[in-house]
Amino acid sequence: MPKVAVIMGSDSDFDVVKKCLIALEKFDIEYDAEVISAHRNPDKIFSYVRSAEENGIELIIGAAGKAAHLPGVMAGLTPLPVIGIPIQTSFQGGLDSLLSIVQMPSGVPVATVAVNGAENAGILAAQMLSIKYPEIREKMKAYKETLDEEVAAKNEKLQAKING
């Protein structure tokens, strides 16, 4: 089974990131969740990311707020795909985090979800991994069908209210 690294720049990011972990679990994707700061312990992030592939990691998700350099630093250190989760901050509501993650130089892309969009990071990781893993692809198809059914049910409720 695939393995994903989920790296938070701070333990305060966990309340947001847990939605990502739940999404990964929904698709039976193993993960390693760690707190590693790009600024406070850069040697550890360099070591962790540079050895990720040999440790069975196939994709990395990085969550960070404020300066939010973590996902970009990781993307610069590995050929593995990196997904960034910008964390909402008290300054600019997380726009600072979002811009720090999406404004990457050519050659160092970071796929980025919405501010606090951790669930979508987990789902995007599953979609990316489903290219290689048919069992994840089948779970993704079932998940998409469930979304369709949920919207159809909501529409039926709305139509009942409208038509009394």
From TrEMBL:
It comes from Eubacterium callanderi. GO terms for biological process: 'de novo' IMP biosynthetic process. PANTHER family: PHOSPHORIBOSYLAMINOIMIDAZOLE CARBOXYLASE, PHOSPHORIBOSYLAMINOIMIDAZOLE CARBOXYLASE CATALYTIC SUBUNIT. Its EC number is 5.4.99.18. Pathway: Purine metabolism; IMP biosynthesis via de novo pathway; 5-amino-1-(5-phospho-D-ribosyl)imidazole-4-carboxylate from 5-amino-1-(5-phospho-D-ribosyl)imidazole (N5-CAIR route): step 2/2. It is an enzyme of class 5 (isomerase). InterPro entries: PurE_ClassI, PurE_dom, PurE_prokaryotes. Substrate binds at residues 10, 13, 40. Pfam families: AIRC (PF00731). Belongs to the AIR carboxylase family. Class I subfamily. This is N5-carboxyaminoimidazole ribonucleotide mutase. SMART domains: AIRC. Catalyzes the conversion of N5-carboxyaminoimidazole ribonucleotide (N5-CAIR) to 4-carboxy-5-aminoimidazole ribonucleotide (CAIR). Residues 2-151 form the PurE domain. It catalyses: 5-carboxyamino-1-(5-phospho-D-ribosyl)imidazole + H(+) = 5-amino-1-(5-phospho-D-ribosyl)imidazole-4-carboxylate. One of its GO terms (molecular function) is 5-(carboxyamino)imidazole ribonucleotide mutase activity.
